[in-house]
């Protein structure tokens, strides 16, 4: 999933180059003074329904959330024409991610855009997408039997002198 999240982060940065932070959501926006540069986007991927298709293959329905925030401190003079400028960023992200795939997951489908309650001075929106993906074991096979012991001096076969 790491490579998918990295691919998603690259897509976000291309779609909205004004984003100064794009990273995994670890609750940064829940802090009084988040340690991110704004505007920022945080991503989270949750497998909401996992079914076992074969003994070594799982199909996962997933929810991807992109939480986007910007600072809007009261008392800061802003250009009145920019009063709703952050809405453009939210819309750009919603439209550029909807129906997007990097080939490893099914296409993203936008299911919700919600404004979240946040600390005073911040505006926060959460974009929610549905997708699905398959999970299989890594390419490295698991050992099926005990490995052969390494030869020790007392178990080595003598080598003929030539």
Question: Layout of SSEs?
Answer:
Elements: H1 2-15, E1 21-24, E2 40-54, E3 57-71, H2 85-97, E4 109-116, E5 122-135
Parallel strand pairs: 1-2
Antiparallel strand pairs: 2-3, 3-5, 4-5
Short description:
With 162 residues, the chain is of the alpha+beta class.
What is the number of E strands? Answer: 5
CATH topology descriptor: STM4215-like
**What's the structural domain tally?**
1
User: What series of H and E elements makes up the topology?
Assistant: HEEEHEE
Global shape: elongated
Class by SSE composition: alpha+beta
CATH homologous superfamily heading: Phage tail protein-like
DSSP strand content: 25-35%
Order of adjacent strands in the largest pleated sheet: 1-2-3-5-4
Computed CA radius of gyration, to the nearest angstrom: 24 Å
Query: Separation of termini?
Result: 56 Å
User: On the 0-100 scale, what is the average pLDDT?
Assistant: 81
Task: Detail the poorly predicted runs.
Answer: 140-148
Number of helices: 2
């Amino acid at each position: 999933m790491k490579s998918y999240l990295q691919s998603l982060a690259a897509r976000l940065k291309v779609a909205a180059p004004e984003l100064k932070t794009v990273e995994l959501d670890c609750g940064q926006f829940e802090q009084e003074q988040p340690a991110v540069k704004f505007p920022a986007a945080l991503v989270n991927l949750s497998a909401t329904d996992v079914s076992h298709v074969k003994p070594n293959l799982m199909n996962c329905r997933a929810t991807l959330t992109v939480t986007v925030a910007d600072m809007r401190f009261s008392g800061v003079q802003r250009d009145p024409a920019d009063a709703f400028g952050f809405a453009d960023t939210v819309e750009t992200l919603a439209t550029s991610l909807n129906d997007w795939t990097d080939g490893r997951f099914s296409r993203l489908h936008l299911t919700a855009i919600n404004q979240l309650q946040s600390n005073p001075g911040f505006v926060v929106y959460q974009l929610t997408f549905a997708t699905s993906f398959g999970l299989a074991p890594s390419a490295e096979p698991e050992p099926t039997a005990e490995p052969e012991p390494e030869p020790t001096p007392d178990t080595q076969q003598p080598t003929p002198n030539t």
